[in-house]
Amino acid sequence: ERLGKQRERFPELSGLYKPTESLGQGTYAVVWRAHVLHGDAEGSEVAVKRFKTQHNKLSRLQNEAQMLIQCRDGTNVVALHKIVRKDEKVAFILPYFPHDSFRDNLHRFDVQHTLRYIGGLFAALTHVHACGVVHRDVKPSNALYSFERREMLLVD
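That's the non-specific serine/threonine protein kinase sequence above. Prediction below.
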């Protein structure tokens, strides 16, 4: 029964992914944490960026997908795994990156973490710009950081 409700609510995921938690939302999309239900990656987690129907313009989605594909081999830049679609519902399947809240952990940014964070951000922006892309929304919620792994990932 639960899977049936998931399919109704997320028809574009076609039973391939099970959303488990909303991670956040912006103007154009909501990002969900989800489990992979089938295939080689079964049981692993992904991020599902689900576009809001009213902002689901094909040209915008194509541009974002093209930018992610162009920059996919970049250090510290999120990769696009897959695009799923069912009628008007479109979602990007991205790697799930466990991270710490910037706001809640600001006090933890000692010199070493600050250097890792800023260095990762500069590496990501250097790569994105080399791909001919300008990221127009650089902010802490789009520059994720894991204190445990000392890694930073540029998203959105």
